[in-house]
Write a structure and sequence with these properties.
DNA polymerase, domain 1; binds 2'-deoxyguanosine-5'-triphosphate; Beta Polymerase, domain 2; binds calcium ion; binds zinc ion; 43% helix; 5 domains; 24 helices; five-stranded mixed sheet
Length: 579
Amino acid sequence: MIRNADIARILQELVDLLIMAEGSKQAFRVRAYEKAISAVETLPAEAADMSASELEKVPGIGKSTASKIREYVDTGSVSRVVELRKRFPAEMMELTRIPGLGPKTVVMLRDQLGVASVDQLRQAIADDALQSLPGMGEKSQQKIATAIERLGLHGKDRRTPIADALPIAEMVVDALGTLEAVRRVQYCGSLRRFRATIADIDIVVASNSPRQVMVEFVAMPLVEEVIGQGDTKTSVLTATGLQIDVRVVKPSQFGAAILYFTGSKQHNIELRQRAIERGLLLNEYGLEDPETGKVEASRTETAIYKRLGLDFISPELREGIGEIAAAGSASLPDLVAAEDLRGDLHVHSTWSGDGRSPLDDMVRAAAGQGLEYIAMTEHGEDLAINGLSREQIAAERRELERLRAEYPQLQILSGSELNISPEGGVDYDPDFLASFDWCVASVHTYFDLDEARQTDRIIKAIQNPAVSAIGHFTGRRIGHRPGIEVNARAVFEAAADTGTAMEINGHLHRLDVPADQLLLARDIPGVKFVISTDSHHTTEFRNLHWGAHNARRGWVERSSVINTMPFAELMSFVNAKRT
Ligand code: DGT
Ligand code: CA
Ligand code: ZN
């Protein structure tokens, strides 16, 4: 069965390919398909069950999209996509992830230099061949070289951003989970540990009918090519070249298998060492006493950890960086979880130029999620195209007043997402700023400043009494734009000193503060965090989950996350800085 998420994915691929073919993101058809993707994602019914004429009645879906959706549902592929993939293969499409390489430049690289992959581009740079192209110089060549290294684009060894991998993994897990033959199913590997990028998707299934599971798996619409099929392990590639491995184990071995395939490798090595010290053998089948042959534990991860004298270790912590010692001495951190989060303090609506759902819908969705409080944080006036003037803020506040009466159980704050200038200033003036209940100041522009200037301007923003939090701290877009160069320690210290929270942005493209920087905060006393969704659409409140996973990777404890607090306590935190 083809789901709406499958359809959205193929349409997104069509959009990416069309941008290449047309040489511009502004092309009319590109915009039309983008609208259609949004419509499919939020469709309450399964598009696969609808006729072409029913689909055309959905706002946002036109005649040509409707026919492509039907073609995909009926045949498992879209001929236009297949045709465009031949012109622009996946390795060539990867080049568009490099900042500064628009579709026109990528086509020019191929036509003039025969460069159509990251590996070939790296070679062309080594040969100094880029400089000869129109509009390119030594400087832009150097910039591209740096970007390739910092993005971790390595041709065959390329890593996929979590935002691309997670929906695919969830789709496969959901589909396998509905099969009669399947008892348990779990994605493992770096994805379960919630790394920002992953090399491949590892899925473990518990079943007594492995062959049946594999037959169903390779028949799934997202499978483009089967690269190995057996009863215990099958590997496939998706259209974008992402590898998915499915392994089937006996239900009694499921815990040992997911433990092993979740890794990390370093965590596994240390666990096995601990087993050996206790005279036991640990592998992907179980924890065994080699003398008696008795399996001591294998069905659940918890049982295996317990037999090794360890508390359960959450997957995000399994990097071999001290978690096993902590689990052995009952000193694992009291990790924050999505269920602890009472509110969301970074929310947009169509009042912001880039918001996608109207204010009323955003508030209804927040209340529907059971949130106790939200802050509407539209963009500040300095963000030229998307920002709100003071008059617009006043008008939105009148709407908020009406909504407060409508949703008495939800506290609605009037906030703003401010922009940090190169000198550390923010939008509006001090009096107007004081009229907001909550402000996030974000790194939206000037990504190329050097480390000293970046650190300086963020600390200046932190010293502003109206700034309650620093938003998406490094400005990274995972797999697309590297984060800024900044002294994270110095910023965290300033944040702790002033009572300013560091945002952990739950957008899968951002996950910012990155986990490795969160780890640095562990030995700086008093750093507070706020886990936020940065929602632009009603469906994005689930980003709270992703934000919590990223926080856990950084060993962030519940007690240092301010949106675990009841509303009154949260307001005391905000007001303590202001007075
Ligand atoms: P990546 O590179 O993003 O795919 O990262 P992982 O961690 O998913 O690595 P992957 O897919 O190569 O392997 C999945 C898990 O299997 C890994 O986290 C731990 C386990 N594993 C793989 N190879 C080895 C190994 O040589 N020794 C041990 N102890 N475990 C391994
Ligand atoms: Ca993997
Ligand atoms: Zn935002």
